[in-house]
Amino acid sequence: MRSESEVREQYEFLTDELESEEMRHEGVRKLMTHYKRALGWVLEEEHM
């Protein structure tokens, strides 16, 4: 199991990636958005 800091670091990385100019392709954006949401749910459920 990953530590909270590792999950938060990945979440922040994905947030930055989604905001970058290289993420303009809609399919990639959708995939990354779903992954980001999943990480957010993990954070919420494990650290409430």
Task: Describe the fold and architecture.
The chain starts with a helix and ends with a helix. The radius of gyration is 12 Å and the shape is elongated. The protein has 48 residues and is mostly helical. The chain contains two helices and no strands.
The averaged pLDDT comes out at 78
Q: Uncertain segments of ≥5 residues (pLDDT<50)?
A: none
Give the biggest sheet: none
| Large-scale geometry | elongated
Please compute the radius of gyration using only Cα atoms. 12 Å
Number of helices: 2
The helix/strand order is: HH
Core attributes:
mainly alpha; elongated
Topology:
Layout (H helix, E strand, L loop, with lengths): L3 H16 L6 H21 L2
Helix pairs in contact: 1-2
Characterize this entry briefly.
The chain has 48 residues and is mostly helical. It has helices at 4-19, 26-46. α1 runs antiparallel to α2 (26-46).
